Structures are given as C-alpha cells and as structure tokens.
C-alpha cells in the first residue's frame, strides 16, 4: 500500500507526461509539486532552493529523481521550510502539506454560462430556419437539418433527368 506522499509523488510524476511510468519525477514536476503543495513559499523556500536540492539529490547524469531521492530532497526542504523543528517533524509537516494534493492546472478555460449565454444556446427558443436544424431534444441534426445540400452526383444543378442516361441509350 503506497503512502499518501507516494501517491502525490506519482500524480505529479505522471502530470504532463503521459509516457511517464510515475516512478520518477523530473525537475519541472518536482518544482510544480513544491509550489502546488505550498512547500515552496517564496520566503524560506524559493524556486532556486528547490532547483538546488533537486540537483543535489539526483544521480549525476540523471534528469529525474526516484521516490527515495525525492524523500531526501523533501527532508532537506522541510528543514528550511519548518526551521526549528527536528528533521523528522519537518518531514512529517511537509508530508501533511502534500496529502491529497493534485497537480493544479491554472489558466485552463472553464465553460462559461454567464449572462446571456444560456439564453443564446437554448435551442428550444430558436425560430425560423434555425429551428429546423435541431430535433425536439435540442440535439443538432447535422447535415440532415439542412435543406440545401450540395449534390455531388456529377450532374449540373437543377437537372431533372438524373439517372436516366442508361435508359435512353440501352435500346
């Protein structure tokens, strides 16, 4: 059974990288984890501190850290963040900050239903030609809801004898 800290580690490890197995965390996602979980507070722990600690715990040529290296990094950051606490208490406090946190996605556009939007998108209030393009449930009929569709049969538009060519010449 994975600890809450491990689950949070995994969620951030996979964030933004669908090919990630979730067992290793890159610097970008480590910084994001520290920021989203309020480990990085901009005063006692800054983004520079986070980068330095990341570089310190990772293997020499590696670009990612494992959960064990992550624990080391968090222990070090915890001592900076919670000055005066012993290392284990600091680590516990950091883990408390991480509990149940998911990667935040700021700037993601949410659907708006402000003011007149509901009124404008309610198909039951449509009239005229627009009304014909939706069924009773308000679902669009797509191409079937259009009266004037293009005939790509190869005949000239308005030609009434379409499909009669073979009948005339098969005597």
Automatic annotation (TrEMBL):
SUPFAM superfamilies: EF-hand (SSF47473). Coiled coil: none annotated. Keywords: Cytoplasm. Pfam families: p25-alpha. Residues 125-171 are annotated as: Disordered. This is Tubulin polymerization-promoting protein family member 2. It comes from the Eukaryota. It is found in: Cytoplasm. Its main location: cytoplasm. Residues 129-149 have a biased composition (Basic and acidic residues). Belongs to the TPPP family. InterPro entries: EF-hand-dom_pair, TPP/p25. GO terms for biological process: microtubule bundle formation; microtubule polymerization; positive regulation of protein polymerization; regulation of flagellated sperm motility. Gene3D superfamilies: EF-hand. It comes from Nannospalax galili. One of its GO terms (cellular component) is cytosol. GO terms for molecular function: tubulin binding.
